[in-house]
Automatic annotation (TrEMBL):
Stated family: Belongs to the pectinesterase family.
Entry GO CC: cell outer membrane
EC primary class: hydrolase
Active-site annotation: D525
Any one GO molecular function term: pectinesterase activity
Xref: Pfam families: Pec_lyase, Pectinesterase
Protein name per its UniProtKB record: Pectinesterase
Occurrences of domain Pectinesterase catalytic (ranges): 372-656
Keywords: Aspartyl esterase, Hydrolase
GO biological process, any: pectin catabolic process
EC assignment: 3.1.1.11
InterPro entries registered for this protein in UniProt: Pectate_lyase, Pectin_lyas_fold, Pectin_lyase_fold/virulence, Pectinesterase_Asp_AS, Pectinesterase_cat
Protein's pathway: Glycan metabolism; pectin degradation; 2-dehydro-3-deoxy-D-gluconate from pectin: step 1/5
């Protein structure tokens, strides 16, 4: 009786397995079943469906029994390449099945088929690292790099397990194939990073498919238009977060996507379905204050607005506007990004811990405490700029040179008050990048949160920066400082300083800075503060209609912001830009010999609704040019300097250190 019941139980379990979907069967953890004769019978089907090229077709319930006629038809198709794909988990699922049955029943045929599938994946990869939906290539949108339904992510997950030798797959390839898998994985990640979409210069997320040549978002089916995807982007980010020892580029991509997910999440709304006989017959969105966040499947590339499409390919901005067939038969919303939001803080904490560990911090002891090299690839003394600063001599008697090799350093860097006389010199302005994305709302520590956002914070006197890009990539989310200088005798030359609102902050009563040959870009008040600063031969670039400067010059300071021989340029959309407005009423800002683009407003200056500022501030120009220089139309309380008045605006008069003979001409001896 006991034996009979066990037999009946075994039949029942097996029947339950075969009643599941093919996807569920491949993903289940049931060693006993994979050791069974029934699993072996299914494996025969898996081998039959595989084409000689190594791939499988999609949307097939492979576990279903085959007639002899069907077997013969599949054998006849062995040399055909038609239909081989990774779409809808094809090929990847079959490889997973083969790995699981090989572990329990190690037949050489299963290993050979698995390795043929891996070879198929490696051959299908484009040179730029992406994968098409079908290989060999099938005409139409199928040639696009396919993130749709997580196709490319699944491939990369397989390659990651192989290259890392995790043992997840019971079939371990040769060292030669492992090396190929590592190269393919790295190329795939590079493709992901390069295809991450920039919206107004800010990294966001990905489309479901990208053009295989330009890497730009591309159209697939009529109702799958170029867009930002709330669904596919989630799995991409989770993959990037799973990379051990991620590069600064990977960290930057994850951080940017996290900010985007937070920005575009939809709250207070849920999808309500009516189901009859297991089929969705009605779908609508209803208001629900307690509903968890959801994300739209498709969002506009320029402003993240959710949209929907019928088979006519015409965008609609409400789900109710499209027909029942597409409305009920397609997933227009997703909750998948919730996993990114849930794991992000833990991921950041892990990164922070790793960066602080000795193995991450120092690759080798510096040969010279006064000449330090930072390189992301480990070829220097440190891989982190901040670590190099932390290990520099305090209050040194001579200058400390920190040379930074090309790369994107995704870190907040602070030059503490005791690390004086540091020169931070990049290998090249365009390729040596210090990048972070803190902003007021992210810091969220009260009304002074702005001052905690800088990517690079300088608190030490006699600091020099050259050949660098210093950027805050938070986007147009409010105050977000790229460079904050709260120190005296600071020189910044040949640098890009990039941000949006509040890009550059220079402060400290009596403190002086010199910016030479720099490109400084932003939106609102993007050069602000109370220090005395000379901008010499710089490009001051407005990205929107706003204000170039917001000085808070102390009443005791003779000079504030002085722009000499600068060019005032702008994006096309910036057509109405003020030269400045007073953050504090004694603001001082002067432009001399500057070329002003047509985006500068004819009145030039704004009083920030502070009538007192019209008497207390000092706003002036001298000998400027360009369509934006309209002295006859300037506000009456600004000044056009006479030649005799302009003579006092020399570097020596403005920047000299009258308290020290040694530092008298610090601005000219910074090299």
């Amino acid at each position: 009786m006991v034996l009979f019941l066990s037999f009946i139980s075994g039949i029942s379990v097996q029947a339950q397995v075969l009643d599941q979907s093919w996807k569920s069967i491949t993903e289940m953890d049931n060693d006993q079943w994979f050791a069974s004769a029934e699993a072996k019978a299914v494996a025969e089907n898996v081998l039959l469906y595989q084409r000689n090229i190594g791939g499988w077709p999609k949307n097939i319930q492979i576990q279903k029994p085959l007639s002899q006629t069907q077997r013969n038809e599949l054998l006849a198709l062995k040399n055909s390449t038609e239909g081989c794909t990774t779409d809808n988990s094809a090929t990847c699922q079959e490889m997973l099945f083969l790995s699981k049955i090989y572990k329990q029943q190690p037949e050489e045929r299963y290993k050979k088929a698995f390795l043929a599938g891996l070879d198929y994946l490696l051959k299908a990869q484009y040179d730029n690292g992406g994968w098409p939906q079908f290989y060999p290539l099938k005409k139409g949108y199928y040639t696009h790099i396919t993130y749709n339904d997580d196709s490319m992510v699944r491939i990369l997950e397989i390659l990651k397990e192989i290259k890392d030798k995790t043992g997840f797959y019971s079939i371990q390839p040769s060292e030669e194939i492992v090396a190929k898998a590592k190269i393919a994985f790295d190329k795939g990640i590079d493709c992901i990073l390069k295809s991450q979409y920039k919206q107004n210069g800010v990294l966001t997320a990905w489309c479901a498919q990208h053009d295989e040549n330009t890497l730009l978002p591309a159209k697939a089916r009529a109702y799958e238009l170029p867009s930002l995807s709330g669904k596919e982007s989630a799995k991409i980010v989770l993959l990037l977060m799973d990379i051990e020892n991620p590069s600064q580029e990977v960290i930057k991509a994850v951080d940017a996507a996290f900010v985007w997910f937070e920005k575009v999440k939809i709250t207070g709304l849920k999808e309500e379905r009516t189901i009859k006989n297991g089929k969705i017959v009605a779908k609508k969105m209803v208001v629900d204050a307690d509903a968890p966040p959801i994300w739209a499947r498709f969002m506009e590339l320029d402003d993240n607005r959710p949209f929907f499409c019928d088979r006519d390919g015409i965008k609609k901005y409400s789900l109710t506007e499209i027909g029942e067939e597409r409305r009920n038969g397609y997933s227009w919303y997703t909750n998948e990004p919730k996993e990114v939001l849930k794991k992000y803080d833990k991921w950041k904490k892990k990164l922070s811990t790793e960066l602080k560990s000795p193995s991450k911090k120092v690759t080798k002891a510096p040969k010279d405490d006064y000449s330090i090299i930072v390189a992301l690839d480990g070829s220097g003394d440190y891989t982190s700029i901040q670590d190099a600063v932390y290990n520099s001599p305090s209050f040194p008697y001579k200058r400390v040179l920190i040379t930074v090799k090309n790369g994107t350093y995704h870190e907040k860097v602070r030059i503490p008050e005791w690390n004086t006389k540091i020169s931070l010199i990049g290998e090249s302005k365009e390729k040596t990048i210090i990048s972070y994305d803190d902003y007021f709302g992210k810091i969220n520590l009260g009304r002074n949160s702005t001052f905690m956002t800088p990517t690079l914070l300088v608190e030490a006197n006699d600091f020099v920066a050259s050949n660098l890009t210093i950027e805050n990539t938070a986007g147009q989310v409010g105050q977000a400082i790229a460079l904050s200088v709260v120190a005296d005798r600071v020189v910044v030359s040949n640098c890009n300083i990039l941000g949006n609102q509040d890009t550059l902050y220079t402060s400290g009563e009596g403190f002086k800075s010199y910016f030479k040959d720099c490109f400084i870009a932003g939106t609102v008040d993007f050069i602000f503060g109370g220090a005395t600063v000379v901008f010499d031969n710089c490009d001051i670039h407005a990205k929107s209609n706003a204000y170039l400067t917001a000085a808070s010059t102390p009443e005791s300071s003779e000079y504030g912001f002085v722009f000499m021989n600068c060019k005032l340029t702008a994006d096309e959309k910036a057509t109405e830009v003020y030269l400045g407005r007073p953050w504090r009423i004694h603001a001082k800002t002067v432009f001399l010999n500057c070329e002003m683009g047509s985006h500068i407003r004819k009145e030039g200056w704004n009083n920030w609704s502070k009538a007192d500022a019209e008497k207390a501030s000092f706003y002036a120009e001298y000998n400027c040019s360009g369509p934006g220089f309209q002295p006859e139309n300037r506000v009456s309380w600004s000044h056009q300097l006479k030649k005799s008045e302009a003579k006092k605006y020399t570097l020596e008069n403005i920047l000299k250190d009258s308290n020290s003979k040694e530092n008298l001409d610090w601005y000219s001896n910074f090299k």
